Amino acid sequence: MQQKPNPPGVSISVVTYDPNLQYLRKTLAAASAAVRAAIAEGLIADTDLLLVDNGPGDDWGEKLQQVLDEVWDPAAGMVEIHPARQNLGYGRGHNLGILRCRKRYYLVLNPDAVMDTDALIHAVRFMEAHTEVGMLAPRVRAGAGDNQHLCKQDPNLLDLFLRGFAPSWLQRRFQQRLSRYALSELGIEQAHIGLPVLSGCFLFCRTRILQQAGGFDPRYFLYFEDNDLSRMVRNLAALAYEPKVVIEHYGGGASHKGLAHVRMFGVSAWKYFRKHGWRWK
To answer: How much is the CA Rg of the chain, to the nearest whole Å?
Structure first.
């Protein structure tokens, strides 16, 4: 297909820490295929990928390069592996690419988020048609194949506890409340513009807006950085959900990852509510 005049460029960043290499292969192979498909449609001009190596240790570079050699097509764009030498955290890692980006669009991508081949095609088309939107979230298939979208209301302490740590019987008693927090009434079949919070596993962003918002707040090591960024971006532009952009996400909540993640979740929650105000319910 003939390339459209002045198609935009896209930068992608993936931050890794002790990554599951099987998922990372799927993520990068899918991203490579999606880039090539969008280029073939004339919707993007070029792409670059930043892979931030947060460790642990300093011997992951060779493993990451091997994965790239296996699955990343050089025709999809230039690749840089950044050896952080220490664990910068999720947001600070992505900021290495965000704050220097000169392309029109920026994709924040988890190392376990596998996009459909046409995901970038639909993402670019949506953003080009809706110039009021600064950040876009996809439709998500969880690892078991169930459909969901991870758009949410602003968090409060009660909903966070119920959603992340309460036993299933207690969650059932508060199902109506949890559904309201998860914006379940919006459904997953229709696009929506003007949402409060988007999940950080896949954020397709207008670079200018993302940079005006300052990127991720580096005070969050892990968790709540997407809640905070959503608040910053929505002061400048709308947040949106487009179900035609589909990914599969293999991640899980903090409560399922052990005490270290529960502690990081609690520390980030404290920082978030201290910054934005304490909401109990």
So the answer is: 18
CA distance 238 to 273: 22
Average the pLDDT over 124-149 and give the result: 86
Q: Is the pLDDT of residue 183 over 90?
A: no
247, 114 contact by CB (below 8 A) = yes
Q: How far apart are CA 60 and CA 265, in angstroms?
A: 26
Q: Is 256 left (phi over 0), alpha (psi -120 to 50) or beta?
A: alpha
Domains and CATH numbers, the chain: 10-154+187-255 (3.90.550.10)
